[in-house]
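Q&A log
Question type: sequence-to-structure
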Amino acid sequence: MASVFKRIDERLGAFLTAQRLFFVATAPSGVEGHVNISPKGRDSLRIVDQRTVAYLDLTGSGVETIAHLRENGRITIMFCAFEGPPRIVRLHGRGRVVEPTDADFGQWRARFPEHDGVRCVIVIDLDRISDSCGFGVPKLAYEGERPHMQAWLDHKGPEGIKTYHSEHNVSIDGLPGLRALTP
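Response status: OK
Response body:
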């Protein structure tokens, strides 16, 4: 039932890009920190090559993924088929944070559609690609994107978003987030 793949081929890539939602898991080093799992969507994933993916990191309530990647680079992305045949795909790898102040940010950012509230781009070099049955995942129907994030961003405005990023740039375990905002 489960398979391990050497690369993301055309068929697997089509499955990944068809999913409207994926989950990102990271954890700090050591036994004391909290494991974090974050939902992602909004056309924010790109397959760079057969062993590299990237996603656009949008403003959220925390900075856990960024902080964990800065500390140890470990990351797993999980995709679940909520429509069609059952399937789960996990991408394990080492991630890095490309911040707006980095020289290569523009070339990474250009891969994605316009979104307000962009924090950075996460780039992941994959070391394990696998799938499993997904028989326990329920079938769910997509109804559309929620308007709440854009309304919140509009209310904050560009300067308010910058302030929010600065004020929320430490993980729940006390790890620093974006380098450019770390004193």
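Response note: The chain has a mean pLDDT of 96.
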